[in-house]
Design goal:
The chain has about 260 residues and is α/β, with parallel strands linked by helices. Helices cover about 25% and strands about 35% of the residues. It has a seven-stranded mixed sheet, sandwiched between helices. β13 (about 230-235) and β14 (about 235-240) form a beta hairpin. α3 runs parallel beside α4.
């Protein structure tokens, strides 16, 4: 079982006034079968098996708090090869399409498997199509680390067709998703969703044009999400200067017939 070691450190600055700043650092421990290394030495493997919430110490005396790793921790520590979809975008896909425990999903352009994993976490089964063979072993490793066994991986080009039928959702994270509209239509049940994920305005335009030209999809919306983190330190409150702005556009459409 994966664990998390949390380092919480208080830092006081006295520049005319006292301030206490709490800094946190998390260490993921993939296995408790061996000692875990940190920036302050190692935590013995025997300590890693203690209950969540226990305070443990490194061999140099640094105190850390031991927790169980969550699914979100696993996703955050996936080995990433291509650009990975962020939780903010995956969350919108899940909530807008309403997939759940009985849903069957197709994820095309699986990449590192982050979106695949987040979809599999809430649905019955996901079939992930990936055209690049070198990505597949990494995806398999990431999914195993996340504890997911309801995913089928396929080394195939989704524009050449989807074998599955009557699925609830098809996600297309690829450079030219409009070439997969016909395949997505054949795979989806009436009322099912297709979601396209592209980074540029011209791509977004071609996605919408292709869906509307098909005559069999209702385009629901084309959106982007900007997540703006804030720095909160006593009365010093401001937006953080280092944050991810634009990631991609998401185009949502629903199969009519």
């Amino acid at each position: 079982m994966a664990r998390i070691l949390v380092q919480r450190e208080q830092r006081e600055n006295v520049n005319g006034r006292d301030r206490v700043v709490v800094e946190e650092h998390l260490y993921l421990v993939p296995s408790t079968d061996k000692d875990a290394m940190t920036a302050h030495g190692f935590v013995a493997k025997a300590d890693l098996k203690k209950p969540a919430g226990t305070s443990v110490k490194t061999n140099t005396g640094k105190e850390l708090i031991l927790l169980d790793a969550s699914f979100a921790d696993a996703i955050a520590h996936f080995q990433k090869l291509p650009q990975t979809i962020l939780p903010k975008d995956a969350g919108l896909i899940i909530t807008t399409t309403g997939i759940g425990k009985d849903s069957i999903v197709i994820d095309a352009g699986a990449g590192s498997g982050a979106l695949t994993a987040m979809l599999a976490r809430v649905s019955k089964h996901v079939t992930a199509y990936e055209i690049k063979e070198e990505y597949l072993k990494n995806i398999e490793k990431n999914l195993k680390f996340a504890g997911l066994d309801n995913v089928t991986l396929k080394h195939a080009d989704i524009t050449e067709g989807i074998e599955e039928r009557n699925v609830d959702l098809v996600t297309l994270d690829m450079p030219e998703p409009w070439h997969a509209i016909r395949a997505a239509h054949a795979a989806l049940r009436p009322g099912g969703y297709v979601v396209m994920y592209v980074p540029s305005v011209p791509q977004m335009m071609q996605c919408v044009d292709g869906l509307e030209a098909s005559g069999t999809f209702l385009v629901l919306k084309a959106v982007e999400l900007i997540e703006r983190p804030w720095h909160v330190e006593g009365k010093k409150v401001r937006p953080k200067s280092d944050f991810v702005g634009h990631t991609a556009f998401l185009i949502f459409a629903r199969k009519l017939q």
